[in-house]
Design brief:
heterodimer; A: 140 residues; alpha+beta; 2 domains; four-stranded antiparallel β-sheet; 4 helices; rod-shaped; B: 277 residues; mainly alpha
Amino acid sequence: MNLPSLSVIRLRGLVFVLAAAWMIGGPLYRQVLNGASKIPRSWVMFTGFAAGEVCDVEYRLRAGDGESVLDRFAVLGFDDRWDAPNSVRRLPKKKNAIRLGERLCRTIAVSDPDIRLYARCAHRKGWRTVASGRENLCEK
Amino acid sequence: MREVIVQFLTATGSTRSAALMRIGIPLLIWTRMGDHWLLYRHHDAQSLLVVASYYLSTFAMLLGWRSRLSTAWVGLTMMFIYYGVGQVGGVESFTHHHIYLLAVAPCLLAFTECGRSWSWDRWRAVRRGAALPERGPTWGLSLITLQLSQIYLWGAVSKCTGGYLSGERLEQIFMRLYSGSDYPDVPGFHELMVAGAVASVVLELILAGGLFIRRLHWWLLPVGVLFHALMYVTLPVATFTATMWLLYLAVLDPDQVHEIIDEISGWSSPFEGGKSL
């Protein structure tokens, strides 16, 4: 195959350098230099996924000095957790966890129940503790 | 140095891998967003223009009609969808990295002779008796390889945070998709998430550099394929896995791809300047 002319080779070289600069410089600008413009593309994948969308939640029933973990599905009458609606299975924020806790207070077959919430919620930087059982949800 | 650069910019190889990408990319674009661009959903002139450009360009690219031109046209259309409709127009689903990859890939593919194999262009040239050999410059394939490398490199950089490497971000993603608000009662779950986080960053860094080292390909590319397969099965990554798999063709030696296709087809078609088959 014949070699292309020098001007074609130069043009190829120019295109290659410009494209490479765009590919390398874009993420460098966005991810290292924290550039605000969204024109260059960054390659951040799943950095925000799940943040603000799920909390790790545990309800405990306090009786005397002791606490026992409460099965929220059983209290609400679900034999299997997969029978429960998504709003019971996955609690995206603290307010959802508190609301469900209050529902547990109304439903549980215990007089004057004392239900405590322990929860940490998803954040881009990791888990963030949002409740550590300080309040009795049934007193609200 | 000058000679090395000239050699790099004038190197040639089989055009079949580029042609396979030319055929695969429009199919992935249709899969990813064809539903959005259905004609009945659009009524204003600008949208209808995008619809027309979207379908005409992708169909021409798939068919291989004026291959390089139609591939560039798809790239420009997809860039308009990413920047114009997505970033400026506020259609969030078009601002994803899946879309950008589907936009930048045809832009780069247009720098290859992607119409020299398996195209309408070639069919017409063969009938005229003027078909050029299935060979073309490979520097465009190197650009695609560089793009893949940058995806891995910067993907790894973005994960080098305490939240990710501690396994907490993977725990959150797992719970968001699978277990809901109940921390999995599985022994070693946390350790598994930490190992997964560290392994994914290490693998991405190895892929970022290893894509350019041919002697690593025999094990690195299968590991990359499995990595993307695992993501496809477990996470909502849409067409990203298939796009990355398809673009791996740019990383491979195009002449070897040609030979393998001949081998599995049971026939041989020697190309000018290539190895004898």
